[in-house]
Amino acid sequence: MPLRSKELSPIELKRLVEPGRYAVGGVAGLYLVVKPTGAKSWVFRYALPITRTSSTGRPFAARRDAGLGAYPDVTLAQAREKARALREQIASGVDPVQARREARAARAAAEAKALTFDEAARKLLAAKTREFRNPKHALQWSATLNAYASPVLGALPVDAIELAHVVEALSRDDLWTTKPETASRVRGRIEAVLNWATASGHRSGDNPARWRGNLDAVLPKPTRLKRVRHHKALPIPEMHDFMMALRQREGMAARALEFLILTAARSGEVRGATWAEIDLQARTWTIPADRMKAGREHVVPLCDDAIRLLKALPQHEGCDLVFASPRLGQLSDMSISAVLRRMKVDAVPHGFRSTFRDWCSEFTSYPHEVAEMALAHTIPNAVERAYRRGDLLTKRRRLMEDWAKLLNAPHGAAEVLPIRREGGAKI
């Protein structure tokens, strides 16, 4: 046990200016340390109850110093009180210094784990950016989470998020019942963020955003709520007259719409088309994977009318876009829709894909998979997809030529077109 030292008074403490360690008394092991700079601090020195053996074989008690704060911020009375508290810990078998280290480590671990949902979402997006088909997809993720998830979940630590929080986020402003498709996407993205948080060690347990065996017990199925809204499309018998009227229209947006119809492509694919993707000699348009909805390269066979349209278009130096706006930028989706509005046609650009698909089914004998591949639809059946590795380009080329004939011939919709072999003979 340390020797008892004379109890120093507050005035005597002030007089200690020489660098060194001074026992202040009152509690064994309590010292005032004066540094060469003149700064003073409290130290409590104690011996652990566990003894060790030195190299000479003599047992000794391991000693440690515990800081109690700076003087005079911590007064003499406060220092003695702190020292007595540490004495009680030691008597109960607790090492004060080790206990402090463990407490600091626990706090650091808790702080590291206490990641908010918004922070977790940002980290997930940063890690997954390369997986997205294009930057727009990443922006959609961020925008939907900010709009629908963040108001409820954003500031919550990910390890504190429970089923009730997720339900509140999905039910806010009647999102789940009024916008089931959007709500379903938001739910999936919340689930992905929480999965990332679990895998990264920031939370544990079940994912409260999981649908099967979880949310499906408290929320109605999206398929029961979804209202199918078909894109407005022109009936097949009206396509010839419409195309004749469209070809009388001037402007790049009208030409883009005509090309869209001839190729049965999506608006974004047409508006983003570049001359580098066009091979006039091979009569193909190859759309790269990063511009396709399915994320796979798609080759479009170009019919005679599409080739003539392309050859008549101007090409601008420094701009590779096929359908460039007056400022040599990409046409907006609204500019193509505006053509239909000015023509007073009750349809939308995407609706022409529906017209094309109806014509394939009702007025031709082309196989289902040929029409689906012409529309760049993904084959849902994994087995069929594995066996059908080709792109059916030859058959699709004949299909698109027959589609162009339908557009050019009045009342041609009533004619059923049989599929033909390579040599031209009917099957």
Automatic annotation (TrEMBL):
Kinase found in the keyword field:
no
Q: Name one GO molecular function term.
A: DNA binding
Domain Tyr recombinase: from-to ranges: 229-400
Mind listing the GO biological process terms from this record? DNA integration; DNA recombination
Residues annotated as signal peptide: none
**InterPro entries the UniProt entry points to:** DNA_brk_join_enz, Integrase-like_cat_sf, Integrase_catalytic, Integrase_DNA-bd_sf, Integrase_DNA_bind_dom, Integrase_recombinase_N, Phage_int_M, Phage_Integrase
Going by the UniProt record, its keywords in alphabetical order are:
DNA integration, DNA recombination, DNA-binding
Q: Does the keyword DNA-binding apply?
A: yes
Checking PANTHER family in the record gives: PROPHAGE INTEGRASE (PTHR30629), PROPHAGE INTEGRASE INTS-RELATED (PTHR30629:SF2)
Record-stated family:
Belongs to the 'phage' integrase family.
Q: What is this protein called?
A: Integrase
